[in-house]
Amino acid sequence: MAFSVFILIIYTIGVAGILGIIYSIVKKNLPGFIISIITLSVALIIIVPPFIPMSEKARQGCVKANMHTLELLVNDYRAKNNGLCPPDTIIFKLLPNNLKNPQTFKPYSRFLKTNFAAKSLNEPSSKNNGYMLGYATSRDNAHYIILGTGKNGQLIHGDDHTTYLLTNIK
To answer: Which secondary-structure segment (H or E) carries 144?
Structure first.
């Protein structure tokens, strides 16, 4: 309740700032214009920062959803191919066009090199690896792991702070 009242007050200050700017322009009132700009700036400074971390969580959520989509494709392929996992060269042909990197908004063009045995990435972390998927199969193509990375190429972790990965290993 208190949070919604706070947001309502900030929203009102923002609207007042906008109306003040319009009024100042129409009346050619420079001091009123400056005060309105300051009022609007203060409202924005208060409103915007809490939403910045939310965009990172949303992008990580998108990567997790993409991981689950990839898992469905792998399991569908396995069902049609005697339990064998698809190599990554084939899986790219199966990926839907709307499966996109949440940072670049482009379809995935590759997977990060992933170490199946260690359940980790072979590629060093970098900003170029942000919001990517890692995919690897066992030597006999019977098992798979799927990993995802966040903003700086670090592995995404679940709520229990362990690496968030999808696999068919029991």
So the answer is: strand 144-148
- What is d(CA 17, CA 20) in angstroms, rounded to the nearest whole number? 5
- pLDDT per position as a tens digit, 41-84: 777 777 767 666 677 788 888 889 999 999 999 999 999 999 99
Phi and psi for 113 in degrees, rounded to 5? Answer: -65, 125
**Whether 149 contacts 111, CB under 8 Å:** no
Residue 144 to residue 114: CA distance in whole angstroms: 10
Backbone φ and ψ of 148, nearest 5°: -135, 155
Please tell me the distance from the alpha carbon of residue 143 to that of residue 168, in angstroms, as a whole number.
Answer: 6
pTM above 0.70, yes or no: no
Measured from the Cβ of residue 154, the count of other Cβ atoms closer than 10 Å reads 13
Distances (CA, A) of 42 to 54, 67, 109, 128, 151: 21, 40, 43, 35, 29
Distance separating alpha carbons of residues 7 and 11, to the nearest angstrom: 6
Q: Phi/psi of residue 146, each to 5°? A: -130, 125
Distance, in Å, from the CA atom of 145 to the CA atom of 143, rounded to the nearest integer, reads: 7
